[in-house]
Amino acid sequence: MAKKKKHRPQATTPPPPQSIAARMSQTQAEGEANRAANNSPGLIVVAALAASVFLFWYYHGMVLNQMADLSNGITMPDQLMLGYGTDHVEALRAAMNSDAVGQLTYVHKTAGLMFPLFFALASLLAIGLSVPRGLLRWGLWIVPMAFTVLDLWENNAIDALFTGALDPGAVALASTLTIIRWVLLFLSFGAVCGALIYSFVKTFRQKWDDAGLRPLR
């Protein structure tokens, strides 16, 4: 009888190891993907802040300045950082007709509404993406939110000065809101700048430590 041949299992050859170039390209691709994911929120913040700056220029630097053409060169109350009195409002009421008053109200409902809302959104994004969760983030968030509320309140208070008999108390309220509004606007700008600086320093220190360099003091 013929002997049956035993079939030995064939040894499987392991796949060739990845070359150094392939591993480097894979690592670079992963790094670029991570950087793109990390930079996407930053690009959104930059775009939102740029739009806020444009709306500020459009509202304060263009539209409200053009309103002076309808008031014999008298400055709109929104522009007076140090406030105003009854004499200033009386001069505006005498210089502006019903069409000019309607134009000011329209400005408050369009550009005067878009700027504070967009600025608050951009500020909340910048602070939220730059500052970790905690009391500091909430403390910085309060400033632009308060600015938005005061800004919209101020618009209504100024519009009310041009209807009916002039009330000195209403003038004092609108003037106070204008002053506080400008203060909160500058504080909001400072909060955003501080948050961005904080994020930059934190990222710089992290990359410095990842590179294995001497720790910064």
Output the keywords:
217 residues, mainly alpha, 6 helices
Strand and helix layout:
Layout (H helix, E strand, L loop, with lengths): L19 H48 L18 H10 L2 H12 L1 H20 L4 H26 L7 H43 L7
Ranges where pLDDT stays below 50 over 5 or more residues in a row are none
Count every beta strand, where a strand is a DSSP E run of 2 or more residues.
0
- Secondary-structure element order, N to C: HHHHHH
Strand count, sense and barrel status of the largest sheet are: none
- Helix residue percentage: over 70%
* Rg, Å, rounded: 30 Å
Number of helices: 6
Structural class: mainly alpha
Mean pLDDT metric = 83
β-strand percent reads under 5%
Whole-Å distance between the termini? 88 Å
Shape: elongated
Describe this structure in words.
It is built from six helices and no strands. It is mainly α and 217 residues long. The model has no long low-confidence stretch (mean pLDDT 83).
